[in-house]
Predict the structure of Sensory rhodopsin transducer.
Amino acid sequence: MKAIGQKIWAIAEGYIPSYSTGPEPAMTSHETACILNTSDEIAHVTFTLYFSDQDPIGPYLIDVPARRTKHVRFNDLKDPQPVPLATDYACLIESDVPIVVQHTRLDSRQAENALLSTMAFPASGSIL
Amino acid sequence: MKAIGQKIWAIAEGYIPSYSTGPEPAMTSHETACILNTSDEIAHVTFTLYFSDQDPIGPYLIDVPARRTKHVRFNDLKDPQPVPLATDYACLIESDVPIVVQHTRLDSRQAENALLSTMAFPASGSIL
Amino acid sequence: MKAIGQKIWAIAEGYIPSYSTGPEPAMTSHETACILNTSDEIAHVTFTLYFSDQDPIGPYLIDVPARRTKHVRFNDLKDPQPVPLATDYACLIESDVPIVVQHTRLDSRQAENALLSTMAFPASGSIL
Amino acid sequence: MKAIGQKIWAIAEGYIPSYSTGPEPAMTSHETACILNTSDEIAHVTFTLYFSDQDPIGPYLIDVPARRTKHVRFNDLKDPQPVPLATDYACLIESDVPIVVQHTRLDSRQAENALLSTMAFPASGSIL
């Protein structure tokens, strides 16, 4: 199968609410980077997190097997360190094979959930 | 009328909640791929579903007549098999004429609905 | 000021809920195409609506003055005919000067609102 | 680090609700332009706001340090003047180094929040 997508993606809006309402883990407030690897090779993906007032943190290492999708919760990232809650961040995503990345947030701070989603920004071809 | 769009699209975020609140079918939790075919020819579209821990399933065959839109609910896909609920998936969409694809989810697990939508990722021109 | 954007855009997901909750008009369920014209010339814009089971309807004529934005509610379109409620549709948007188009829906069928938004698909350069 | 993104972006949908529900400032209705600057240079960014019935206002000057993200609330813009509430607007964003821009709205007019987000439209390469 052909590889679909780009090797560099960016999510500018990152924010994990500090509390949640409803049954865990489905209703826990979370942000997700959904990665699709249609190729026949494993994708070695790295996340680098950017903040407003400190140096970037990373790389976080994530493997996505061939012909698989992986929905990565930022809440679950542990190494090199957990993502701080209630803090503005952004994320640069780099892969050695083309992938597609979509960004979703479930916000359950109040009794009823709110959802957002957007394709991440595919940066290949626009790097200066 | 000229054909608008691309022949290959990807949705990286797929997840159908396993339960719903409110009157069916309008308020049933669902994910939709909205397809627009502005051309003068029928579009023969295939969906291939990707998962985190099993091989891809498909193709699902969907025809979109000339100068028509079709809003395909993933919940309604039956052949070769229904889409599992409460399971992460992604979707590759291929067509023999250019189309436009937009992705929407209605989540009615709680009393009040949540909505998300984004254009799918247009992959033509970025295939390696 | 330079013109920003494209001359052809598409929104594949269209659906105006048939009822609403809350004070009108702010909380009336509606879909909006937000148009930005940064150029020094008036933009003559046409909407063509596509359906699942009937021929397209249009053109709807909309002028956006130079250096202005216009947020067009599909609910307010009257000529050649109103947009049917609770009906799947899609929209092709054409302009004689480059514009930017973003799509938003407010769904107030239930007591608490749901919102979605995405950039429309910029089709120029991908027309076959 | 290489610079990712584009130098010109547009958000066509702007609207800050005039009231809110819930604890401030987290639950205050707001719109945000999330900017990511992955480069090694400070990004000098300007916002220009467009309206439906008056001339554009700006520039608003915003600096984003090297390797940082800044999530700019439109509610907080003060100079040359605050953004009017309950008013349709759009925003042109220009930077001297490539950046990535994502748009988010939290609407807390009702008891339960609604969220929307989309990548802004990257205009570089499509300027006429």
Summary: The radius of gyration of chain D is 15 Å.
